[in-house]
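G., the chain you wanted modeled:
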Amino acid sequence: MTITITAFERSPDGGKGLARDTRVRWALEEAGQPYEVRLVSFAAMKQPTHLALHPFGQIPTYEEGDLALFETGAIVLHIAARHAGLLPDDASARARAITWMFAALNTVEPPILDLVTARILEADKPWARQRLPLVIDRIRDRLGQLSARLGDADWLDGAFSAGDLMMVSVLLRLRASGILDEFPDLAAYVARGEARPAYRRAFEAQLAVNTGKAPTA
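Predicted structure as tokens:
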């Protein structure tokens, strides 16, 4: 059965890998699974057809036969559970990898997204200047904890897993802020993720949608 995912017809970041379909593309590339992409406009995302797939009118969605999924964590976990390459065979290591997926989405990503909100959507509020340092401090706290856990290891728990895929995807959102550079081990960790051939294929495929240029081989 053909796997079909949805992605932005025109990504807000210009195809630089921050849209969440990148995570799903990356997982499918790591698992060696072919897929098709259905591009949707912002208007189409709010129409009944798309809302039937994603009740919150976002991307990506995942369709395979009668199965339809939304939320990147659920989609990546589904891919990882069905195909080799993203979860360890050992049951305990597998459970730890899944734990890191949840940690990326539930513990590390929220303050990072809060920074985007504070800098863009709330920048004109009278209390914005007072709030922004608090948001940044929360991010630094989380990164300090993550850095301490990573140490000098290449990946979070042994070999690369879906936990690393999700964590790297989350941390990439910090690059433009400069905060990630304050933690050289985490910056190097992200660079290792970006250097993986599967990530490069996913990134270039998304970039091609926004630039109109075919991805390189």
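Strands lie at 3-8, 36-40, 61-64, 67-70.

Shout if anything looks off.
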